[in-house]
Amino acid sequence: MGDTMPDDPTEALDFALARVGDRWSLLLVASLLAGPRRFGELAAAVPGIAPNVLADRLRRLGRAGLVVARPYERRPVRYEYALTADGLELAAVVRALADWGARRSGAGEGPRHGVCGSRLELRLWCPSCREVVEEATLEEVTL
After folding, report:
1. Interatomic CA distance for residues 140 and 135, integer angstroms
2. Which of 27, 114, 129, 131 shows a CA-CA span of 20 to 30 A to 82?
3. In sequence order, what are the residues at sequence separation of 6 or more whose Cβ sits closer than 8 angstroms to the Cβ of residue 100?
4. How is domain 9-112 classified at the CATH fold level?
5. According to the 3-state scheme, what is the secondary structure of 49-86?
6. Residue 95 burial by Cβ neighbours in a 10 Å radius (0-12, 13-18, 19+)
7. Is the peptide bond before 9 cis (omega within 30 degrees of 0)?
8. For the chain, which residues make up each domain, given as ranges?
9. Residue 142 pLDDT > 80, yes or no?
């Protein structure tokens, strides 16, 4: 599999999952959506992750071009981690998974609008037609 996105939906999903398809990676991406964090801050934000697993996932996300490590101290060298532009593109996907999980687990109703408090809904949008694709017409959607 190369670095270009394949046309086949199964291959496309495999491409994405190979980069962020494990629990820890998705939790780290979700944590970094709030902004750059240091190693210890990430460890605290993702309960249960072992330091060696955290280091491994940060390296993997870095190799995938989703996270960048910036040194903030020279001796000893310490890093701050931030999402790249490609990593930030995962925001909608991570939020959609969190919304789905919140509703299924009973942990909440998902994201709410900060201004009025209403529950937000995730929708598919066609920029060419300038319309929302409703569930009733999802059979017209191709991956």
Report:
1. 10
2. 114
3. 110
4. Arc Repressor Mutant, subunit A (1.10.10)
5. CCHHHHHHHHHHHHHCCCEEEEEEECCCCEEEEEECHH
6. middle
7. no
8. 9-112
9. no
